[in-house]
Amino acid sequence: MDDEQTRRYETVDVNRDGAAVKIALNRPDRMNAWSDGLSQDLLAVLREVAADETVRAVMLTGNGRAFCSGADLKDGADDAVAGKLDTYTTLTRWYHPIVTTIREMPKPVLTAVNGPAAGAGLSLALAGDLVVAAESAYFMLAFVGIGLVPDGGASLFVPSRVGFARAAEMAMLGERVSASKAVDWGLINSAWPDAEFAAKAGALLARLAAGPTRSYAGSKRELNHWMYDRMAAHLELEASIQGELAASADFVEGVSAFLQKRPPEFGGK
């Protein structure tokens, strides 16, 4: 990519300034919810910047009022209600390569959470090396609300940052965690006033892009080895469990209730 270049995919915007690249999810009308199209665009861009040695730091953020609201349930609504949604293939084909590319690229990835990060959107945010947020943002493991379990690496990234007790609370209660609480818990690095957020995130990206790239890459390898050495096996476990639950009666009820805008009535099956 050339310097000062802005490139627009259908669902992702890419802007380069020197050695720094900003990637913005661009489905603002759907709160940047994951779709197959977004997954395809995002994976292509991440692989490109990972392989480009002239790119020294990457920022991942969202356009509009959300970072990412999770999987787009309306995309697969018919299959979901029929109990035939193939979550395993979606996870292994798209989500896993995306978070793995973020974790393994030999340069720092800053995730700048400009708004809600829910479900798989939280997984994506926490895949980054440094995570910052606007004060109005929140974080939420929303899976339980539709009878599913954390996926996309969330059941690895959350407890590695906040420990078992708070990870279990987030996974089983599915409540919002404010940006300020997320800092207190150690889930993210910093929360900044909304009016200052873009400037501060941009300054941090520029600092990383001008820093000792090989040092950052070495630290990242060390942290990956200690914290995420079994990531591939754990992602496979997540996908397997999620595949089982996607065929459950509770998932069908959860999606039906979501689409009908009513509280779910789970039966435990």
Walk me through the structure.
With 269 residues, this protein is of the alpha/beta class. It is 48% helix and 15% strand. It is built from eleven helices and ten strands. It has helices at residues 36-51, 77-81, 87-104, 120-126, 154-162, 164-173, 179-185, 194-209, 213-227, 231-245, 249-260; strands at 6-8, 12-17, 20-25, 57-62, 109-113, 117-118, 130-134, 138-140, 177-178, 190-192. Strands 1-2-3-4-5-7-10 form a seven-stranded mixed sheet, sandwiched between helices. It has a three-stranded mixed sheet with strand order 6-8-9. Strand 1 and strand 2 form a beta hairpin. The radius of gyration is 18 Å and the shape is globular. The termini are far apart.
How is the topology of this model organized?
Layout: E1 6-8, E2 12-17, E3 20-25, H1 36-51, E4 57-62, H2 77-81, H3 87-104, E5 109-113, E6 117-118, H4 120-126, E7 130-134, E8 138-140, H5 154-162, H6 164-173, E9 177-178, H7 179-185, E10 190-192, H8 194-209, H9 213-227, H10 231-245, H11 249-260
Parallel strand pairs: 3-4, 4-5, 5-7, 6-8, 7-10
Antiparallel strand pairs: 1-2, 2-3, 8-9
Helix pairs in contact: 1-3, 3-10, 4-5, 5-6
Question: How do you describe this structure in short?
Answer:
The chain is of the alpha/beta class. It is built from eleven helices and ten strands. The longest helix is centred in the middle third of the chain and has 18 residues.
